[in-house]
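Subject: design request, 335 residues
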């Protein structure tokens, strides 16, 4: 047999073991020979044993199970099955990944385990009923942003907002945005770019799926000093659904049973100060926005904003506008 055929046979044995075996599914030397027949090859037991030793020396974790139904199987892989299940669930539940791309990514993840284990990854299909983006340019945008950050370059792009016609209408009358990208973050199932805007001299964020016609520029990034002092984790805690607004230290009075809600939102390092037997006070950094008020309203009457006074007044106005809107709706129904 030619040397090239010997090398090819060893590669096919590796492919067979990776695809067909795991701890619950083993293959004997005779089984491996039969599988080689699919590729127009064959090998006696002694040759199979020799090739398996070669693959072990290469670093493949091939384990031999003894006994009546003994055989060979792959032990340690790059990813354990529970890790792959976690990744599949993340892909399926991610709104910014389209159905088509979800299927492609999951198929690739299935290739990292045996065929029998891959069938276990094809569960929880109901998650596909969740809202998914149809905009596949997001993957290329993310790739270009990473490339720009790595090469220390600015980027330019068009930026839009969705209309009632489900089209992306460009902002700034279609003018290009030019920014220095510094980080990517994921919030509320959306990808966001964190970048320095020289014109405004501010750190800003942009939803990646709303960016079009992205281009990596020759100019070096700016705003390094600004971003050096920027705490991305703190930014994510205080910003609700990535909507902008003014920064405030807001005091909340909460019932004790809401401690978990507050810790989940703002982190375990915040201080919960007892007020009385049933309530605690907490002072949290917040970007004041309608989204923050919506979150506060959703928590319910077990929590109230006690300061600063302008934020209290703004929240009360927000609630009044909601009630007035429902009042108008009821008035229309009575006509």
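Subject: RE: design request

Done. Sequence follows.
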């Amino acid at each position: 047999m030619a040397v090239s055929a010997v090398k090819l046979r060893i590669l096919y044995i590796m492919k067979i073991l990776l695809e067909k075996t795991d701890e619950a599914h083993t293959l004997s030397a005779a089984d491996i020979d039969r599988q080689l027949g699919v590729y127009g090859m064959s090998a006696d037991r002694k040759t199979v044993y020799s090739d398996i030793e070669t693959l072990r020396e290469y670093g493949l974790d091939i384990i031999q199970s003894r006994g009546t139904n003994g055989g060979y199987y792959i032990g340690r892989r790059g990813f354990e099955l529970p890790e792959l299940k976690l990744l599949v669930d993340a892909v399926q539940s991610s709104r910014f990944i389209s159905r088509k791309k979800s299927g492609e990514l999951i198929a690739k993840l299935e290739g990292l385990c045996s065929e029998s284990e891959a069938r276990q990854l094809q569960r929880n299909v109901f998650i596909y009923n969740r809202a998914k983006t149809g905009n596949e340019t997001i993957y290329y945008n993310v790739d270009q942003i990473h490339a720009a950050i790595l090469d220390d370059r600015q980027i330019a792009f068009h930026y839009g907002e969705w209309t009632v016609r489900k089209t992306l209408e460009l902002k700034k009358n279609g003018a290009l945005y030019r920014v220095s990208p510094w980080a990517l973050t994921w919030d509320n199932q959306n990808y966001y770019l964190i970048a320095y805007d020289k014109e405004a001299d501010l750190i800003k964020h942009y939803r990646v799926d709303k960016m079009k016609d992205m281009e990596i520029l020759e100019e070096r990034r700016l705003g390094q000093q600004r971003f050096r002092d920027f705490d991305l984790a703190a930014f994510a805690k205080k910003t609700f659904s990535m909507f902008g607004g003014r920064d405030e230290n807001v005091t909340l009075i909460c019932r004790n049973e809401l401690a978990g809600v507050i810790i989940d939102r703002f982190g375990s390092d915040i201080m919960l100060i007892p007020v009385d037997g049933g309530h605690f006070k907490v002072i949290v950094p917040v970007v004041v926005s309608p989204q923050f008020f919506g979150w506060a309203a959703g928590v319910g009457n077990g929590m109230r904003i006690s300061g600063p006074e302008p934020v209290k007044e703004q929240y009360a106005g927000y609630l009044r506008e909601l009630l007035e809107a429902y009042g108008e709706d009821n008035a229309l129904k009575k006509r």
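The chain has twelve helices and twelve strands.
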